Amino acid sequence: MLSFSTLVDVLFFGLLFKSIINKSLVTCILSLSWSIECGKKRKKMPMFQMQTKLDVNGGGGQVLDLETAVKDGVLGGDVGGLVVYNGVAEKLDLKKMIEELETMEVPSVFICPISLDPMQEPVTLCTGQTYERSNILKWFSLGHFTCPTTMQELWDDSITPNKTLEQLIYSWFSHKYFAMKKKSEDVHGRALDILETLKKVKGQARVQALKELRQLVTTAHSTAKKAVVGNNGVGLISSLLGPFTSHAVGSEAIGILVNLDLDLESKRNLLQPSKISLMVDMINEGTIETKVNCTRLIEKLTNANDFGSENVSSLSLLVGLLRLLKDKRHQNCVLVGLCLLKTICSHESVRKSLVSIRAVPQLVELLPILSNECLELALYVLEVLSAVPEGRLALKDCPHTIPNVVKLLMRVSESCTQFALSILWAVCKLAPDECASLAVDAGLAAKLLLVIQSGCSPVLKQQSAELLKLCSLNYSVTTFISKCKLTRTIQ
């Protein structure tokens, strides 16, 4: 028979054991709800490894203690999938929230190791690993009876809904969704306030209001853009541009407009001569950012129905664009300038104007230092200019045309090779006696043979053969082969 003290000890240790078991069971269940490191590396973890803390920021951020989360109501706090926002209970669709927050970094424990997408209906296998239900069922349907993460054989093929993790996923996305929603509402309201302010203020106050609105629409905020476009903000801002607009107001206004989706009516409004004239002035005299924005905005206006050459044929605009191309410190200036030149040089009057302000030698001199993207644009413009007599003559008279263009054959892309061949053909055909020897000395023959033997289009090969024949007219076969240093190639 047990003594009273022994009985007390038994009862005490029994209660303690029960408490430990209950707590351990809760901890075990919670720890088995998550698979660790479900990213692309899929790092293998030992079976049944205990984990009681969860990084809810996807690594290196806030760590959530699961037991505290249960106690404080973070888990299971949204009863029945309802969340409270502005005092109103809402039922949110998890799939919709995931889609709208797709650019946000999601904690790795929410990611299904199979699809690498956030889980909506997580289920746990007997190995303790968790997957999206549809993904693991598809895995089983393919005849696999292993755990995809650990590759262990399953001793039990049942899957258990992981309601704890599901609730945590829902709570996390709900929190992020409503934070985004609130921020969007704040931005929308602020954009409307600024539009109202612009109707009343002038001078420096107007500049400050425009500056704040530009900040809203240029920080990747679609909400601000929609607010401006949907509340006649484009018309209001466009009305601020005119012959008496200061550059301070104009630069801010154009910085807003260039980031908006403009309809045809808005584009027609901006094509008024006084507004185009203001943009041209700022391309010549504004800051680098203002020059780029004005150039981009004019390019956006070129696809308006009533856009004509008179909008862009002014020498002032063309001179401003050539100045942009000279700014070697800012590659973006060169790119936007060439993009607009490519668009507007389809007008014959623009081509003649460009030749008259010596655009050809400037573009030719730039060829060796341009990026591949800019090279294709510059060669396109030069090819278009070679289609007019003044352009061909300017190309012939520029001493660096042939050597600089020859170097680009088979160097960047097939398009660049095509443009380069067209330019060389136009120049050599204009003055074969003078240009053929220069082209041969620059190594054109070897480049043309390379094009002919390559996988380029038949049109390019034919054009190369004709150009090679044109270059060889003033030479005997032996002399031409020797002068071109092709003896080893032919042998």
Structure, described:
With 491 residues, the protein is mainly alpha-helical. The protein has helices at 4-31, 66-72, 94-100, 133-141, 163-198, 203-217, 222-230, 233-238, 247-257, 264-270, 273-285, 288-301, 315-326, 331-344, 348-356, 359-366, 372-385, 389-397, 401-406, 414-430, 432-441, 444-453, 458-471, 477-483, 487-490; strands at residues 53-55, 63-65, 82-85, 88-91, 122-124, 130-132, 160-161. The protein has a three-stranded antiparallel β-sheet.
How is this fold's topology laid out?
Layout: H1 4-31, E1 53-55, E2 63-65, H2 66-72, E3 82-85, E4 88-91, H3 94-100, E5 122-124, E6 130-132, H4 133-141, E7 160-161, H5 163-198, H6 203-217, H7 222-230, H8 233-238, H9 247-257, H10 264-270, H11 273-285, H12 288-301, H13 315-326, H14 331-344, H15 348-356, H16 359-366, H17 372-385, H18 389-397, H19 401-406, H20 414-430, H21 432-441, H22 444-453, H23 458-471, H24 477-483, H25 487-490
Antiparallel strand pairs: 1-2, 3-4, 5-6, 5-7
